[in-house]
Amino acid sequence: MDRSGISSGAARRISGLRPQSLGSTGTAGIMLQGETIIAVNNIPQSMTGGVIPTATSSSSSDDEPSSPPPKYTAEDLEYSEPAGRPSRHYGRDEEAGLGFHGLENGQGDGLLMQASTTLIFAVSGLICAGWLLDVIQHWQVFIDISELIILIPILLNLKGNLEMNLASRLSTAANLGLLDQRASRNAFIKGNLGLLQLQSLAVGSVAGLFSFGLGVVVHPATNNFNEIALMITASMLCAAMSSFVLGGFMCGLVLVCRRYRINPDNIACPLASSFGDLVTLVILAAVSVFLQKYINSPLSALMLVMLLALIPVWVIYVRKNKYVCEVAKEGWGPVFAAMVIASTAGLVLERYINEFPGMALISPVLNGLTGNIGSIYASRISTSLHANIKENYRETEKTLFLVHIPVQTVFLTVIALLGLGHVQWTVLVVLGYWAVALCLIVISLAMAKWITHLFWNRGYDPDNYALPILTSLLDVIGTVLLVVGFWALSYSDPTSSAGDS
């Protein structure tokens, strides 16, 4: 079959058959079941803008997806080998049918080992981020401009959502074979990195302005134009710089996973989130200290103008890339909705961080770890839905829940031995922490499954919509639960709960 044979007009319609797998070596115009080849007239819109693949088939209604996917088109597709043939560049189990995710057993693709190892690294990054937040909250710039404390959880949430969305899109693309050919791989990666810069500058500006507005409500008559310029400039510059570093890291990570037969769904999102927090905090602290030295000069305003001028440049670049042009139009809603939701966590943190200093370290780790586990689950479900394969929900949930316990134990042991967090870890405090952590992980897994299916059934790509809403809600729930836990412990053991300020 030549390329001209892969078109919607010439697609073969096979009655009563349901496609099981996609081609392993390209953007895939072929599905294979037994000896029958079905031509596919579309590719996943998660690669080109956020919706779901369909195959031309006259199968019965029982074989249709649970929700009709949105319409989309794809042009200039390259021919790929039928499914079932191993790629020359990336090995693939023929029976798996799709990348390394085509097994019905939740543990069959190495979830237990890959997730546990990844979460240990993720917790290391979260501990470092929490320790850094615990340190910089006492820096003069964060004392003079308290709105920066409000900005931190909002910016971390927004940046984490953008990077996890990128990781989820890359993971789905890898499992669908889109990254196996050089032409499609280069175009997809360049488009997504450009989109990440555009989104980072946009959300950085909005996050800075939004945080400053919340600060004015909390602390009126203490702000001026120079502080506004510093806030927005620091937020945008931090977002752009960290996206440059982390975007390249995530692209390289997913390609390495594909090369060495590791399912990126199990590792990409947690690493994007945890190390993204650390890198973003480092850059935000450095930029804020630098800009405060020149707060009475026009430096912040000039840098702000230059950063704003870059936005239309990235808009033009992204609109020319077929893989991300639709995402650039439609992917803003969940990101900014997540910002509004996460602002609640920022207000709670700003309100109670002085009363309970231990929250500075514990909050990002607790929320980050449960969010990472939820993101693994949501990413796996999204890939399964795109690929039309079955995810064993019970096994996956059990595995992720069990993985959570030793990872939390490692976290508690490390911070207790190092004496971090302004918390005296008595037996009562440890039990209280475990009660909060176990409640939050159950909520995380339940919400990940529900939110992912909710968007899928309404025709939206979960790769672009599910993670921002999930992680922002978990940030709020985790922060509130932590405050309640500290508040309850303060009556029985004040030194353990409130710590020493």
Low-pLDDT stretches are: 1-107, 497-501
How many discrete domains?
A: 2
Q: What is the percentage of strand-forming residues?
A: under 5%
Could you tell me the mean pLDDT? Answer: 74
Main β-sheet description: 2 strands, antiparallel
Oligomer: single chain
Helix-residue proportion: 55-70%
Radius of gyration: 23 Å
Kindly name the structural category: mainly alpha
Number of strands: 2
* Terminus-to-terminus distance: 72 Å
State the order of secondary-structure elements, H for helix, E for strand: EEHHHHHHHHHHHHHHH
Helices, by number, come to 15
| Dominant shape | globular
Q: Which strand order does the major sheet show? A: 1-2
In words, what does this structure look like?
The chain contains 15 helices and 2 strands. The protein is mainly alpha-helical. It folds into 2 domains: 1-96, no CATH class; 116-497, no CATH class. Strands 1-2 form a two-stranded antiparallel sheet. The protein starts with 29 loop residues before the first strand and ends with a helix. 55% of the residues are buried.
